[in-house]
């Protein structure tokens, strides 16, 4: 195993990390990713200037990610399975997705659109000040489907590949893409490396996530598959497209369409099929993400215990 752990030990660490996340949720103080974000901001301010912006972006990425990944590898080599599980807990964001999106549903159910707008603005980059109920519901469902891949399934995938160090590498790279991967004057060149590395690391997990959404579709696996195959390519992100198209098809709702960014209305490609999203679709999207997590954990543990038996035979 790349992790150095026996398969059954990796399976136990996987379960422990997921359960810790569901039990404790996101660390409210001294979360490592918050500190990493500050480090990334310092590196960006110092290196994102002058010529050779792409090379500077590569250097910044290496300085931010590689030393911490190496440190995680050295620590896990001596600390054992408990540290692997702890790193997974700190990296995965299943409980956080629930805690940030279900209150939006509750606000809409109470008829408090203003509060729903405020809560939505905390998890998406689009403008929500004038968003209607369907716009808010759509944003919440889209965030759950897309971030289900980034914060949960990509994290689980790279934990299975490289255990603690693998999950550290993935989450740090994903964080840098979220901070630097914008197509604007400031980041278009400097953040190109971070964006492309994240695309590569997420390529397989995103398609496994899309396939999982198809398998667990509430209202038609064929429709979810068709939405994935016909709509994903039109989306700007090569990984978010399959995830969100299959997820929207699995829920039987329509996502995408108009969204306002920095005061400018953008017409995004349509995703899914059916009526526009409503408040209840946020809950349904959360349940899809949760069911998919259970599927991944059960399938991974089963495969690891079978592999353990083969290696012991």
TrEMBL record:
The protein in question is named Cobalamin biosynthesis protein CobD
Entry annotated with the keyword Ion transport: no
Instruction: Name the pathway it acts in.
Output: Cofactor biosynthesis; adenosylcobalamin biosynthesis
Among its keywords, does the record have GTP-binding?
Answer: no
**Keywords, comma-separated and alphabetical:** Cell membrane, Cobalamin biosynthesis, Membrane, Transmembrane, Transmembrane helix
Q: State the membrane topology.
A: Multi-pass membrane protein
Broad class of the protein's primary localization: membrane
According to its UniProt record, which protein family does this protein belong to? Answer: Belongs to the CobD/CbiB family.
Compartment list: Cell membrane
Superkingdom, taxonomy of origin = Bacteria
The transmembrane residues are 6-24, 59-92, 151-173, 288-307
* Known role: Converts cobyric acid to cobinamide by the addition of aminopropanol on the F carboxylic group.
Q: Tell me which Pfam families the record gives.
A: CobD_Cbib
